[in-house]
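G., the chain you wanted modeled:
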Amino acid sequence: MPPLPATFAMTIAAPANCAALAGSAIGAMFFSLFGGAWVAAWCVQRYGAQPLRLLPIAAIAAFLCMLAWRQFRRHRAAHAAQAGTREDKRNSRWFNLINAGQWVGIFIAGNVLKNLGLQAWFIPAIILIVGLHFFPLAWVFKARRHVAIGMALTVWAIGYPLSVPLGPLDPVGCLGAGLILWVAALSAVRSGFAVQQSPLQS
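Predicted structure as tokens:
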């Protein structure tokens, strides 16, 4: 059987690729907002609740979220077409279970650390648990980017308390977690832009 023409092959692959780009964009929106929350927490701990210092953080988070929204809007039809399929329902179930496990883990860690008199380690524990929850998400969504995010957050959670002056109480922990999530958001949007441009270049 002769090979399919390139244009026909791209037409077949387009819906799946577009749905994946829409999914990446949704993740990027969450990364933008949660990253902004972490960086804002660092800013408040370091400088106090000063609106002029928090404004640039909000602007960066909003800009990244806007870029991700534009990518999602471009491909939302493919995302809607995939919704309700068996694979989509399976992924949604796993996503909800993993996220519920993350919050349960944070709750348990907070109580255990409090009872042990180790409240100072609560922020590193949160970052560690958030990082670990990306590994099963990578398996569910077949997203290598999630593995990289999980590794970065896990290494940061373990490493920064041992290498900064204030240990686990140092505000830099929140800053590092936020920047990791912002880089992840930017990476997702940039990858989507590169995929969109490749057919034009070819």
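Confidence is low (pLDDT under 50) at residues 1-13, 197-202.

Shout if anything looks off.
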